[in-house]
Amino acid sequence: MAGGRRGRWAFAVDLPSLDGHRRTMRRSGFATRTAAQAALGKVLEYERTGIVTDDKQTVAGYLTTWLHDKASTLKPTTTARYHDYIRKDLVPALGAIRLDALRHQHIALFIDNQLTAGRGPVTLRRCVATLSSALTDAVRHRRLALNPARYALVPRPPKYEPTCWSPSEAARFLRYCHDHDDPLTELFEVIIGTGLHKGEALALRWNDINLDDHVAFIRYTLSNINNTTPVLTTPKTKSSRAWIGLSDRVVAALRHQRLRQPGDDLVFHRLDGRPLRPEYVLRHFHQLTDAAGLPRIRVHDLRHFAATTMLNSRVPLAVISRAMRHSALSTTTEVYGHLLRHVAHDAADVITHALNEADVA
């Protein structure tokens, strides 16, 4: 411990390194002896508890290394999204800070600045979640004692309430597609008739479909890297990779699609065999919707249509959860709980019926 120029204090301490040699850590610029002692005490506490200290590693250096190591376990689309958050947002704002010196206050200020600049809460939450994931790994690998992003507060965006067509509107849309022999008619028949995600429908392969048995295995989903490069990846969750049943109407649509676009690979594709672009499907869907005089919705809302149609037809919730390939029944309840009013009425009616039966007896 020593006083430096201009009344500043510094410390130097020998620490073990991974190669077995000692290394000297020097830090300076502390305004008081007490501040220097506190910093030295923290370094020694880290050393005692097995946390690796590196006063030269910045947040930028750590995040870059972290993503490089993490990429092998992530989907290409996730890697691309993390890369954008790190390069465009996190490094410019926090990259110059030493990783050891990163505090909750730094992250709170980053969030406040982003919101002030008009950043959407959904994107910001994902950006901060990326940072928190990286810092959690830093804690797990004994690089940090605590994750300073763990309790960062980002405003929750308003919950999206899906807009669903009625069965008559969905039938009107499909009838319009058939009447105009639209090339994507069969794609929309499949999505509406099965509740598949758009990416899952676009990734369907003939080898995973058995039309005679009325079943298909969902093995892939089509995603875009940086909204430009379509890639086939595994579905979102393990439960999403599963067999689904196909109705007679969906089977008929697939048989017609095989005549429309013969091939042995993708069911729905461009003329040259390459996958359809998801953004093209959305744009074309909106054009058809407008032409048919129907309220504009997302392609993903066709999946909600399938679920709500089953719910309104009193299909058991467990069956719907399995058909939608949700990871847990609670997921189905969370997404569609607002539509389960009839379940509450049915439960109340059962109790009333039991009491009335007992009273008569």
Automatic annotation (TrEMBL):
Keywords in alphabetical order: DNA integration, DNA recombination, DNA-binding
Biological process according to GO: DNA integration; DNA recombination
Protein name as annotated: Site-specific recombinase XerC
Start and end residues of each Tyr recombinase domain: 160-351
Protein source organism: Saccharothrix texasensis
GO molecular function, one term: DNA binding
Keyword DNA-binding part of the UniProt annotation: yes
Protein's UniProt keywords contain DNA-binding: yes
Pfam families linked to this entry: Phage_int_SAM_3 (PF14659), Phage_integrase (PF00589)
